[in-house]
Amino acid sequence: MGDADHAEYGADPETALITPAHCEIPEPGAPRIAGKQRVLLTPGSLAAMTYGSPEAFEEFRCSNELNRRYQPLFEASGLHITGVGDEGEARVVELTGHPFFVGTLYLPQNSALEGNTHPLVEAFLQAAVGT
Amino acid sequence: MAGPRIGIIGDFKPDYLYHQATNQALDLTARSLGTEISYAWVPTDSIAEGESRSLDRFDGLWASPGSPYHSMLGALEGIRFARERDKPFIGT
Questions:
Q1: pLDDT: is A69 or A12 the higher one?
Q2: What rounded mean pLDDT belongs to chain B?
């Protein structure tokens, strides 16, 4: 996709790859996706194996997401959507054929603010130790 | 054993909670795994096209929150480097 762009950088939100989340805006200036939400993980994916569970509950604070019109392109590529919200919206992506390549719409590092480690951060560091 | 070296792709702001959380998560997780760790923030505008080789010194790369980046191109080059060079990568 040579013309991929991000609505936050001025692209048309209808056609941009990254686009404002399709949900109610809670209040002016607040993120569109906020608070604890369920993420359904694809069985057998790196994410599901890392969590050791088919679902996770994660804290979101984000206003943009992958434009849903392009999700089928990802399904056909090596960058798989392996975590989705309750309406199938992309929340986790991972690259197959790579030792460890994961992207999340949420912030696993926020667990540290409460003094807790997070399985994805642990798995990332373990992969880095192994290189 | 010096532990893994992590490069954080992003434009660090000391008062931004989620940047602080990224550093804290690395410190906390390394302690929990019983390993040393070193990490450095790599500003997106320093990763100019073709100069992403500076990232080769890291064992893993983390694309930080805090969009918009100073340089979207630099951020994408950093992520491309992780992808093409099989560097462990997390983007959050």
A1: A69
A2: 93
Which residues from B are below 8 Å from A129, CB to CB?
Answer: 3-4, 33, 35, 59
Helices (H), chain A: 46-51, 71-75, 119-129
**Which CATH topology does A7-129 take?**
Rossmann fold (3.40.50)
Extended strands (E) in chain A: 18-20, 33-41, 55-62, 64-66, 79-84, 90-95, 101-104
pLDDT of residue A23: 53
- Minimum distance, in Å, between the CA of residue B18 and any CA atom of chain A: 7
CATH number at residue B10: 3.40.50.2300
Query: Which residues in B lie closer than 8 A to residue A126 (C-beta atoms)?
Result: 33
pLDDT at residue B8 in the model: 98
**pLDDT, position A21:** 65
